[in-house]
Amino acid sequence: MNIEDLETFVGVADAGGVSSAARRFGVSKSIVSRRLFRLEAALGVQLLARTTRGAALTEAGITFREHAARISAEIELARDRIMPTGDLCGRLRIALPLSLGPTHFAPVLANMAQRYPQLQLHASYSDRFVDLIAEGFDCAVRVGYLPNSNLLARRISPVYLKLVASPSYIEAHGAPESPEALMEHQALMQGTESWKFMDCGKIITVQPQGRFKSDNGIALTAAALAGLGVAYLPESLVCEYLKSGALVPVMANYPPPPAAVYVVRPPSQHPVRKVQVLTGILIEYLEQNWCL
C-alpha cells in the first residue's frame, strides 16, 4: 500500500472532491483518480462514491479515513523529524487577503522561500472567505475578527481599525457622532457585516447600511476618498490619507476594538511544521517591521 495513495485519499475525503484535492497536491485530477483506484484495488473495497457534486465517503471509507488520516499525520511528523535541521520540503498552499497580502505579507513569503530552497510555496490572494478544506489550502492568513469555526487559529499581530470619511462627504452629510447616528449614513461595506465599537469598555455592534459594497479593502478606500460614504478599515490602508487630510477619522469617542492578524489551519492531530515555521516568520517580521 502506497503512502502517497493514503494521503491522496485523505485529501479527497476532507475536500469532498477530486478537483480540490488535485489543487492541494499540485497534480492532475487523473493522477488523483489513479491513486484512489489503486488504493481501493489494494483494499478490495470502495472507499468513495463519485457524485456529480464531488465524492462522498462510503461506510467503509468513513471507517478507513480515520486510520488513514492518523497514519498520514504520523508520516508527515516523521518526515519533519528526519529532515536535516532547519530544512523544509514539499508544498505549502496559503490563502492571503488581497487588500494587504501583496504589500504586507508577500515579502514574508519571499523571505521564507529564500530560507528554504526545497519548499514549494503556492500563494493565493483574495479577499473572499476561502474554504480551506474544500479548496485544499494548508493555511490562511486572515485579518480582522474571526468568526466561529472548527479551524485552528494563532493570533500573530494586533490590527487597529479606523472609521473614516472624506471631508467632502462630511461637508455634504455631516459626521456621525455615535453608533446610532451611523445608521443614518452611507456605509461602505464588504457585504452584510456588522461593525463593532467600544463605549466605556463595552462593545456595541451595529448593522450599517449602504449602497456601495466591495470585497476588497482597497476598493472601499477608493470609495471613501470619492466621498461615497463612511468606511471601517485597517489603519494601514488609510494612514497615508489620514496624514494628507484626504480622509479624516470620525466617531473618535467610539473606537473600534482591536482586531488581529491570524494564521488559521484545518484541524488535525499534528500541526504541519511548514505552517508552524510560516507562523514564526510572520510573528518575527511583524514585530520588527510593521504593526497594523
Per-chain topology:
Elements: H1 3-15, H2 18-25, H3 29-43, E1 48-51, E2 54-57, H4 59-82, E3 90-96, H5 101-115, E4 119-125, E5 139-144, E6 152-159, E7 161-165, H6 167-173, H7 179-182, E8 187-188, E9 195-199, E10 202-206, H8 217-225, E11 230-234, H9 235-244, E12 248-249, E13 259-265, H10 273-289
Parallel strand pairs: 3-4, 3-5, 8-11
Antiparallel strand pairs: 1-2, 5-13, 6-13, 7-11, 7-12, 9-10
Helix pairs in contact: 1-2, 1-3, 1-4, 2-3, 5-10
Structural summary, described in words:
The mean pLDDT is 87. Helix 1 (3-15) packs across helix 2 (18-25), helix 1 packs across helix 4 (59-82) and helix 2 (18-25) packs across helix 3. A hairpin with a 2-residue loop joins strand 1 (48-51) and strand 2 (54-57). It is elongated, with a radius of gyration of 23 Å. It is built from ten helices and 13 strands. It has helices at residues 3-15, 18-25, 29-43, 59-82, 101-115, 167-173, 179-182, 217-225, 235-244, 273-289, and strands at residues 48-51, 54-57, 90-96, 119-125, 139-144, 152-159, 161-165, 187-188, 195-199, 202-206, 230-234, 248-249, 259-265.
Quick synopsis:
This protein is an alpha/beta fold.
CATH level 1 class label of the largest domain: Alpha Beta
Taken together, the total number of domains comes to 3
Tell me the radius of gyration: 23 Å
Helix content: 40-55%
Spell out the key features of this protein:
single chain; about 290 residues; alpha/beta; Arc Repressor Mutant, subunit A; D-Maltodextrin-Binding Protein, domain 2; five-stranded mixed beta sheet; four-stranded mixed beta sheet; 10 helices; elongated
